[in-house]
Each structure stands twice: as C-alpha cells, then as structure tokens.
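Minimal example, chain plus EPZ.
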Amino acid sequence: MTPAAPDAPATAWAVEPSGPLRGEVRVAGSKNAITKHMVAAVMGSSPSTIHNVPDVGDVGITTEVLQSLGVGVDLDGDTITITPGDEIVPEVPLRYSGLNRIPILLLGPLLHLHQEAFVPVVGGDRIGARPVDFHVDALRAFGAEVTETEDGVRAKVAGRLVGTQITLPYPSVGATETVLLTAALAEGRTVLNNAATEPEIIELALFLQRMGARIELSPGRKFVIDGVEKLHGATTRLEGDRLEAFSYLVAGLVTGGQVRVGGCAQERMVTAISTLQRMGAELDINDDWISANAPDGLRAIAIHTDTHPGFMTDWQSPLFVLMTQAEGMSVLHETVFEDRIRYPAMVVQAMGGEIELFETCLGGPACRFHDSNAVHSAVVRGVSELRGAHVEIPDLRAGFSGVIAAAVATGSSVIEGVHHLERGYNKPLETLQSLGLRVARTASDPATATSTRPGA
Ligand code: EPZ
C-alpha cells in the first residue's frame, strides 16, 4: 500500500448503528514487525523475502524510505522482497520527517554500510514525548559520533562499530531493535540488559538469526550478540498482528456480537485473553482461531498497561470502549506512554462515555510517571449510553476506539482522520464492513468535527 497522494481528496467514515458485529477476521503480519524486518533486510548481501505482509500505510512509507536510499523493494500480494542496493545513499530525505518511527532504526545499519548516516526527526502517534535518547546513547556506546539537530540525527563512525555493554533505562521496543540491528554486524560481543522482549522483537531477532546473525536471548531481559562480518538474505513469514486481533475481538464484544479472529496464535494473546475473561467474556480458542462473546454481559476491571508479558499499551484504547459497556467502575493505568490515555478518553467522552482522568497511579503499582503531572490513569463508568458524534480521531489506536464506539452508539457518526487507521490496520473499512458495520466513506469536513486532541 502506498501512502495517499498529497492532493488526494480527504475522506472520512460515516458510521451508522449496526447492531452486533459478527463474523471472522484473519489478521495479517503485524505492522510493528514488518517495518523492522524491512530495515534488517537492508543489511543482507542478497535479497530477503517476507510473507504475510499487512496492507498498511506504514509499509508504503517504509518502502519509499528504503527506495530513497537505493534499496529495491517489491511488493507482490502479501510478499515483499528487499534487494539491498550496491550504491546505498546514507541519508533519509527530509520529506520523510515525522511520518513514522522507522528511520531512527536505520542509523545502525547505514553506519555499517556507509560509516555515516542521517535520518530526519521521527514521527508516529503523539502519545508521549517519545524521545530517541536511548537509541542515540546506544549508538554512541558502539563508537558512533552522533549529533542531534533540529532536522534529525546525524552519525558517523571511523572504521567499524564495536560491540559493547548496554543497559537500557527502560525496556524500550525501538531502542532494543536499534541495539539488535547495530550489534549484528558490529565487531565483537554486545550484551544488552533490560531489553524489551515483545513478540515482535523476538520475531526480529529470529529473522536476524536467519540472516546469519549470532543472537542469544538469555533469561532476565538479556540479549547477547556476537557480531559477524556479513549477513545474507533470508525468508520468513510474519506472525499475526496481536493488536488487530484484540481490536476485532473487542469490536465483537462491545456490540454484543462475536468475532472470531484467525491468524494470531494464542501465545501472543495470553494477557489479552485473561483480561477479557476477567471482564466476564467467554473465550473459545483452538489452534486456528480465538473467539469471544459475553452472553451474560461484562463486568468492570482494574488494569495497568505494561511491557510484555503484561497488558500491552496498544490494547488500552479499544479496552476503553469495552469498559464503557461493562457494569461498574473500571480503572485503567497507562504506564508505558505518559500521554496516551487522554486520546482514546477524549474520543469516547465526545460520544458520551463517562471517563475521569487522573495524574495519580490508580489500579496498579506506582509507575515511573508517579511524580510527574502526566495524566495517565482513568476511571470509566459503565454502562454508558454512547451517542453518535462527528469526531476527528487523533491517532491510530484511539481511532479504532472511535469507530467501535460509533458502532455501539445511538445515532449516526462521522469519523475524521481515518488515514491514521489506514496507516496501521489492514484494510480496516472492508474488514469492519464484513463484520456487519454500516460504514462508508464520505466527504471530509473536519472544521465541524469535535477535535479529540488534548488542548485543541
Ligand atoms: C513501539 O513504539 C511501537 N511502535 C508502539 O506501537 C508500541 O506502543 C510501543 O513500542 C510499546 O509496545 C512501533 O513498533 C513502530 P518504546 P516505540 O521505545 O518503540 C520511552 C502502535 O499503536 N523511550 O518501547 O516508540 C518512551 O517515551 C504503536 O502501533 C525513551 O524515553 O516504544 C516510552 O515511554 C504506538 N527514550 C517508553 O520508552 C527512547 O529513546 C516505551 O517506548 C525510547 C523510548
């Protein structure tokens, strides 16, 4: 999928009350794995092939970024082939500034290929400050000279990057990926402590191993990587997207229906499943699919988001909507991104959801935002009657919340900003229609929408 042309007319989605959503969704590979595999493949001496690629905007953005560097990228159905170029340009053009978070991951690979690199300021959902200091500190530990400018990050190295000992201040997904990608071709051994171990990270490590990297995952969030001289191309099939899987299970539950999700293994969904069970949902699980319904209704829950294997932060937004349809007062404590909770909250509030936000740590142990004034806990009253609204969605996951809130609301809704959804969900409009949602594209008119951006 290529990003929409800048002059393409903006569209919104019109959503009508549709009753219970039912049916089956087969999720493709995950957005947060494919783009990282594409970066890893740049370091191979021969082409790599990746199957089960999702049709999401982030793949189109990353394709263009890699092509601008001289890397060949060919998408054929759900298979992508990356052919590393002979003449790599080590500068990501400024026009890719702020589009997604992938360019920062290219620094290590580009330094290996070219001894110098520039990447523009990275983007992604605005869910917190999202600094890149862990990435920069890690690259410096490998021996790179790194300069941060207003436009982006420039790095160079005299000779080869050298393996090192790194302990991340927090198990960051992106910084762990930067270390794995950089250590694979560095000289000598790298030991990474306090690493993220999300399933998408393990997938990346396995792919690098297939490319010839020497990577070991030790107990206690520790990776040991012995750098090799050369990596070769590899072939892999991506595992199913656990965020999409959860989103569609919740879409069924919120509307009193039942969605069966295939393509995402149970082991990637353990905490999501146990959370839905605690809310009273009945789960039917086999080797091919997971299905959830709640014939006796849903009950309130207190939960905090966490790094893997905890309840992941990306699952938080759809859960908000589910909490409005559960009997009693639910508590949600976001501990990964300090500014993430306000976005889905504002979307759901705009539709009549009763949500109160707090700076304190509620519903779980005190987190690292305890002494800040970050609004990162919420109390949600259920059952709230949601009503249709004209809203502008602020980001990807909060956007999905807006759509499923509209599905259960009384009255019509118009959802603006759906490009966020198309960046991260695989054919979301068609998939929701197949489940029975009465949704259609309509002309965009953001000026009359309720903005759900805090402070807006
Ligand atoms: C990845 O973001 C995902 N994005 C996010 O998915 C996901 O929510 C997140 O990991 C957590 O699972 C992609 O993979 C493209 P982090 P990332 O580095 O890598 C702080 C979605 O909806 N931090 O683990 O950016 C940071 O501010 C998206 O698909 C630093 O302080 O997340 C945050 O508080 C949204 N300095 C925490 O660490 C750094 O240099 C975790 O961030 C890096 C991170």
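Residues 31-32, 101, 124-125, 128-135, 170, 172-175, 196, 198, 312-314, 336-337, 396-397, 424 surround EPZ (CB under 6 Å). The two ends are 31 Å apart (CA to CA).
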